[in-house]
Every structure is written in C-alpha cells, then in structure tokens.
Amino acid sequence: MPDERIGHQQVDRVLDGFFTAAKERAERISPSYLSLWETLEKSTVGGKRLRPQIVMTAYTHLGGTDLEAAARVGAAFELLHTALIVHDDVIDLDFVRRGQDNVSGVYRRMAETAGEPAEVARHRGLSVGIIAGDLALTGAFRMLDSVSTDPMTREILAGILDEAVFASAGGELIDVDFSFAAGSPPLAEILDMERLKTAVYSFEAPLRAGAVLAGAGTEVASALGRFGRDIGIAYQLVDDLLGVFGNESATGKSSMGDLREGKRTVLIAYAAQTAGWPELSGIIGRPDMAPEDADRARRILVDCGARQYAQDLAANFASSARSYLECAEVPAGLAAVLDDVVSASVNRGR
C-alpha cells in the first residue's frame, strides 16, 4: 500500500482541481458566486479525509493500482461529506464547525457586518448554506462520473453513492422527527437512525466502493460493508459522547449544543429509563441553557449510568466490527489497517 500521506495528497490534488474549475466557472457569473465557491472550498480544509482514506485503503489492499481513479472516488465521498455537514449545520441552526465559522456562519457574519438585523443576517447565512450544500452534493456525483473505469463498475459505484445519499437523508429525517417526539425513542430506533445517518456514507459505502473499484468479489465487499456498519455505529456513539463530554478545543464543536437541542442520542434514551429522567428532561432542550445547567445534566448522565452504557455499547459494536475482519476473504494486511481504524474511532477524545 502507498504511504497514507501520498493518498491524502492525491485526493487533495483532485479536490484542488475540482474547486479551481468551479471557481473559474463561477467567476464568469459574478464575484459573489466566486466568493461562495471560495468559502465552500475553505470549509473542506482541515478535515481528516477519513472517507477518502477508507476508499483508498480498501482499494490498494485489494490489489488496485490506479491511484488517480481511487482518489477521485475518495474525493466524491469527501464532497458528499461536505454537503451533508453543511446541510446538517443548517438543520441544527449551527454556525460554527471545527472551531470556526461554517459556511452559514461566514455569510451571517458578512450580513451583520453590513448592518443587517440579526434575524435577517441569520436567514441569509442559512440560505447560503443550503445553496453551498447543494453544490457539493452535485459535485460528488460529477466527481464520480470522472473516474476512469469500465461502464459497469461506474454504474455500480454510482449506485453505492446514491444509496449513501438516500440512507443519510432518511436518517436525517428520522433524527428531525425525534426532536418533535415526546420523551425518548427506543434504543433500537436511535441506533438505526445513526447507522443510516452516519455509518452508511462514512464507512459502509466507502469500503464497498474501494472494493468494487479494485474488482474484488461480492463476498469481500459484503464483509467490508458489515464491518463498516458496525464501526460506523461505534463511531457515532463516540461522537455523541464527545458532543456532551468532549473537550471543545479538541473536538471543534460545542459541548452544550446537543444538550441545548435535547438531541435524542443513546445517552438520552438510556437516561429516559432511569430515576434521573424527570430532572434531566427539565434541563435539556432549552436554547437558553446555562453552563451550570449543562454541568448538572452531565452529572445526571454519569450518575444514572448513561455515559458508561454508551461507552460499553460503542466497545461492543467495535468488537462486532472486528469479527467481520476475521473471514478468509479479507486480506490480512487490510484487516490489520482496519483494526487500527477501529481503535482510532473508539479512542477519540481520550
């Protein structure tokens, strides 16, 4: 397998080319459109390139040699990730990502600087966020269409990317529906939502895409998909823990946002079945939540066992994911690298 940094650099070169061409087109329309593309491009900088890395890891360990083609598939998943987080921030009314203004935040601030009222500036920011997410989403499919491969493989890859979008949208809708429901939904429904919203496009689909591009058999692609499902759920469980207990300077996101939103996570689903729920339910879900209220909510989540339960569940899904790497169809080298992915996914924030 090539050095991981080489794969990262190759994906960056592909994305640079994509944004350069887009900015040239946008400049012919208007300066403001060029500015939007520049802002969208900046929003992709600083990410871990997790999904492209997963594509290229599967591809190279399964015998693939066309790194340019793999980088383009990886870049398509990175653009999809960009689209989904831009739209997710709009849905959550968030204006910060990775510790700085996101796309909506940039345009809200521009409107505020121009003297617009707060509500007008907020609306402008969210509106541009929708536009930017749309551009990244269509860009993902355009990027995939540029991959040099045979027509049948390209069609299968397009189906994998389409399923990733379809599943993620379904998971996002379920998550939105949860926010309007009284009480907390059952644990199984939350886990299914997290699989649809995160695991499919972040792990299942990139692994399958790398395998398909390399010409691997269906048994390998299926095993990797099952691995991706379980490690994706474990990854999201850890993300939910970090969203409440994480260090903001390390995670780049607020540790009060999920509590203020009253987001229905496994933490909340477990707590809803305990004696701590009456007090906790009166604290979370309030936009005006004070830091001391958030501290009290965290103490309740610890005392009622919700934090430990979520940690144990993440470890169980990680263990299940590892079990899918033990089949004969998955090469030992690939299994070893993916085992490292498991460790990195569940040990974030420690």
TrEMBL record:
Keywords: Magnesium, Metal-binding, Transferase. InterPro entries: Isoprenoid_synthase_dom_sf, Polyprenyl_synt, Polyprenyl_synt_CS. The keyword Kinase does not apply. Pfam families: polyprenyl_synt. Its cofactor is Mg(2+). The keyword Transferase applies. Belongs to the FPP/GGPP synthase family. This is Polyprenyl synthetase family protein. It comes from Arthrobacter koreensis.
